[in-house]
Amino acid sequence: MIEIIQGLPESVVAVTVSGILTGEDYDRVLVPAIEDKVQKYGKIRLLYQLSEDFEGFTDDAMLEDARIGIRHITEFEKIAVVSDVKWIINAVKVFKLVIPGSVRTYRNKDLSEAKAWISE
Questions:
Q1: Phi, psi (5° rounding) for residue 2?
Q2: How far apart, in whole angstroms, are the C-alpha atoms of residue 3 and residue 22?
Q3: Where are the alpha helices (DSSP H) in 1-110?
Q4: Angstrom distance (rounded) from CA 94 to CA 3
Q5: C-alpha dist (Å) from residue 106 to 38, 88, 111
Q6: Nearest of 119, 118, 116, 113 to residue 103 by alpha carbon
Q7: C-beta of residue 44 within 8 angstroms of C-beta of residue 15
Q8: Could you say which DSSP state residue 73 is in?
Q9: At CB < 8 A and 24+ separation, what contacts does 15-18 make?
Q10: Per residue of the chain (120 residues), what is the pLDDT tens digit?
């Protein structure tokens, strides 16, 4: 499940993910939010939190994640990934080498720090 995190600047798409993430979650919540912000602001910022009760991705979710990332790779000014899942943190560290914007990773206990950075 994906839920929008409120209270951040307008050009920020901030979400928290819990349970098992599906392609339908992307289609229903994340893709429209990103498309709307890109249309309004051009460059956007993304805060993507995998909460402590995150269980994993379906294959469709991983495909949608790749699609949205490729489609808007130059529109992401900053990306903050918040997670305690080691393979997620390691994957982000690898992929940030090819993402033109700034990318940082945070632990769930540091969510407020991630929010501050993405809002700067």
A1: -115, 135
A2: 13
A3: 23-25, 31-41, 59-71, 86-95
A4: 26
A5: 24, 11, 7
A6: 118
A7: no
A8: T
A9: 15/47, 15/48, 15/49, 16/49, 16/50, 16/51, 17/48, 17/49, 17/50, 17/51, 17/54, 18/51, 18/53, 18/54
A10: 999 999 999 999 999 999 999 999 999 999 999 999 999 999 999 999 999 999 999 999 989 988 888 888 899 999 999 999 999 999 998 888 888 889 999 999 999 999 999 999
Angle between helices 59-71 and 31-41 (to 10 degrees): 10
In this structure, the strands spanning 2-4 and 44-57 are: unpaired
pLDDT of residue 33: 96
Q: What is the dihedral of CA 24, 97, 42, 107, to 10 degrees?
A: 60
Count Cβ neighbours within 10 Å for each residue of 82-107 and write b for 16 or more, e otherwise: bbeeeebbeebeeeeeeeebebbbbe
pLDDT of residue 95: 86
The one-character DSSP state at 71 is H
